[in-house]
Structure prediction request, 174 residues.
Amino acid sequence: MSTVQRVNFEPVRDVLPVQRADFPLADGSLADPLNAVALVDGEWMSVDSAYKIVRVTDVTTPGNEAAARSYPLWAERGRYDVQAMGDRKMPVLWLGAWEFNTRIFDAAAAIGTGAAITAVDQPLKIATITIGSRNYTGIVGSDTTDAGAIIVGYVTRLPAANGGKLRLRGGTGY
Prediction:
């Protein structure tokens, strides 16, 4: 099981070929670190019709699966530069291939027809997960029988061999 920290989503390799994009939040209160459901780095977002970012799943109910293309958030909770902007923009990894360690995952979850995370190169999808007493939009396992799942990446290192963090590769190059 993962635990949420100050840094939950960190690059493993050079990030120069990655293009991040800053989008305004549809709900600016999610950038407030005192908000009970504030965003944390490593959560997954989608872009709505107003070109603003929203969580890709409703976090009120664990097990909700992402039904839209999603992008990982790459801004720690409570960052001052985000707080200072009137439109509360936050960066997501928009283009390029990447490899990151994340704490925002549930290795044991078998959501829908997905499977627990057990193997390197296993496909990964996004769903509402619970870590501690709070829900997040995070990584869960998938498999080849998971019809309709939106695959966001693949396992490159299991948490047991990586200090409790899941390593995944994804982006436009996976």
Q: What stands out?
A: The chain has a mean pLDDT of 88.
